[in-house]
Amino acid sequence: MTDEAAIELALEQARLAAAAGEVPVGAVVIVGGEVLAARHNERETTNDPTAHAEVLALRDAAAAHGNWRLADATLAVTLEPCPMCAGAALSARVARVVFGAYDPKAGAAATLYNLLVDPRLNHNAEVIGGIRADECGGLLSEFFSNHR
């Protein structure tokens, strides 16, 4: 599966989030071309501050994989992961993180921090950002303009 196709699946999840009144961020976890998990933000729905799309997708993927170590996995997400989500990806030992829009306020994969490639940590992941960034960012901009 291409990174663009993975981001498209994440965008589908982000659209579901928007329809549910959640910040439109979607994430998928892929291993060997197979989607193990696809989730979107659920913080408002669950009143859970950790219910970011990435964390939920990593939890589901680990359960489906039967192992918390997702060493061959790609995490694809519509928005650059925050520090919590980048940390979760590192904890899961994902091989790659690909994302759409850069996050100037909380980005921890390229913008504010580079947690996923910090050589001081015990694991690193390949990071590719900016995939379909305009579309991913546009979905967020539209959501926030309608909710202000």
- Main pleated-sheet profile: 5 strands, mixed
Radius of gyration: 14 Å
Total helices: the number is 5
Helical proportion, percent range: 25-40%
Shape: globular
Stretches where pLDDT is under 50 for at least 5 consecutive residues are none
Classification by helices and strands: alpha/beta
Overall residue-averaged pLDDT value:
97
Rounded to the nearest angstrom, the distance between the terminal CA atoms is 37 Å
Order of helices and strands: HEEHHEHEEH
Number of strands: 5
Percent of residues in beta strands: 15-25%
- Biggest sheet strand line-up: 2-1-3-4-5
Supply database-style keywords.
single chain; 148 residues; alpha/beta; five-stranded mixed β-sheet; 5 helices; 39% helix
What can you see in these coordinates?
- The protein has 148 residues and is of the alpha/beta class.
- It has five helices and five strands, in the order H-E-E-H-H-E-H-E-E-H.
- The protein has helices spanning 3-19, 43-46, 53-65, 83-91, 133-146, and strands at residues 26-31, 34-40, 73-79, 96-101, 126-128.
- Strands 2-1-3-4-5 form a five-stranded mixed β-sheet.
- It is globular.
- The N and C termini lie far apart (37 Å).
